[in-house]
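Allow me, if you will, to draw on your knowledge of protein folds for a short while. The matter concerns a single protein, recorded as an amino acid sequence and a row of backbone structure tokens. Kindly check, if you would, that the fold set down in the tokens agrees with what the sequence suggests. You will find the record immediately after this paragraph.
***
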Amino acid sequence: VMGAGRWLGVVWAVALVLYVAFMSSYGDSLSPRAVTARAIARAQSHGSRPTAAASAPAREPAVDPSLVAGIPIRASPGALARGLELDCGIHGTIRLFIRADWARVHAAYAQAVGRAGSESNATTSSSQVYRLEPTFLIQGRLLAQGVRPEGAKPRAPKMMERGEVGWAGGGSGPDFFIYLGSGPAGWLGNPHEGTIWAEVADEASMATAHRISRLPVPEPKPGQMHILKTPLHVTPRTWLPRGEPGDAPAVVPPDAWSPATGPGGSAILKVEGASVDTAAKSCPAECHALSHTELHGSVVKWGSNLHTDTAAECCAECSKHRQEAEALQAGAKGCNVWVWCGVAKLCGKQHRECWLKHHWDIWHEPISVGTSARWTTGTAMPAPANHSSGAGRRLATRTDADLILHVMGLAHSTLSLHVRMRDDGASRARARLLTAVEAVRGGGADPCTHATGGAAAQGRSCAILGAASTPATWGSTAVEDGLGPSERWPAGRAFVRGTLGPAGTPAAAEATEGPVATEWPQATVRRGSVAWWASSAESTPDGPEFFVALADMPHLGMSCNVWGDVAEEDMQALDELAKAVEAGMERMPLPISLLPPPAPGAGAGRSQIH
């Protein structure tokens, strides 16, 4: 008996050592101590408090199930994605879109685990959730008998955003985590240092993940992870967003979800609490104001001691401080970065705070633009036009055009959209489309005439497929944040959608070798942005369907593959087109020709809809 007892003690000791080794191997980079330290360091650069996600539990997002059920849900991006359903028993279900375009080999592993779960008894699953950081993340293991994790670490060069799923600790699985923060997680790497392979499918699933993150856990030692005493059993199953026949066991409902009608197909808020930033637009040009952006630097005047009513006044305070400092001593470190908190509901006690900072070279660092829900910022010196963040991205004009989308078939007019393509972050789209344009310039056939039918019109493969105007309350803090019809960002509004057919379709090699589609640096979606549309069976996150944003869309974060901007002069015509479509004055589809811009000095046609 004593011998058996000693052996039992040895077994327990070995188990404890293995457990400690396991927990030290996964999630270290996401531990509360590491995350909080990074958040505090960033916050101290302008004297503000750490975010709620990093320092304290935040309230559960208010989600009305009746509203969520009525929001169109995004279909998977063509053949590049499938769904994974995490059945968490009495706590609910979390549905994920597997993003093969972000990490193809890991998407295949997740899909295989889902298939195994669908085909076997739920009790045989060894998948689990074992770590909970309230309202910040949940972490677990994704396993299935006979399915081995991949050892490779390919990844898409993107920043992790709200609702996205990655492998924990910078590893390659099977330990995963779901990020629940309110916006992009820049402190996890810019771009993210690990592998992101899926995203939460809808706000109902986000609400489930938030509830799970607040389950009771034993109080850990300071700086340690919050570990469940008994891991939460999870059963992964295949879920088909579009229900392709024969693609999974019959247990998967063939009509589980319907395609989305919103730009990019987003069914969750990538930035929670965002609104249209009118503060930046009201600033003088010399303020170099940036919407929804928080820039850092050494604080030269604390915002808790400086309040202004407008962002423009904050900019003026920065200019005044810089002039006074230089008057006292040449080369003094005066203010060259200002940050203003203008959204009362989100800023709380920091509302109207104006932080003045000095940075030795703000444009030398990798920064994120347009990813903050509450801050407006500006700089003494303008951003370089080609800065990787897109901060120097000015409004496009017709003279900037790299290509023209000539829309035909309108009832009373013609419409030519002059598109300036991005130099950085869209090399695939740029190479593909400019090759087609140069072929036309050289006397070749319009690539949009090669179709033999389909969804487009008059035998053309390129067409405008739909349009919807911008509601008066778009982005307004006067209405609740969300994607519902009466909420801040109603799905299916503020865009013109189309397809570029073969000219916009990725080559076979591009479509099968991953990761694909997402390129660095990413860009936010603003009025006039042109991005690939990935919400139908015929399209992928790399084309050929696209949308033009008729309004700023900060709630989409950097989740869309933006490849161009429509000239500012053409945007009013697109607004009028959307209204005409809604009034029944224009019928879809409208055929498109892909044309080169006119030679310098030749002028450009007027875009108008009567």
Residues 16-81, 243-261, 450-458, 604-610 have pLDDT under 50 and may be disordered. The two ends are 95 Å apart (CA to CA).
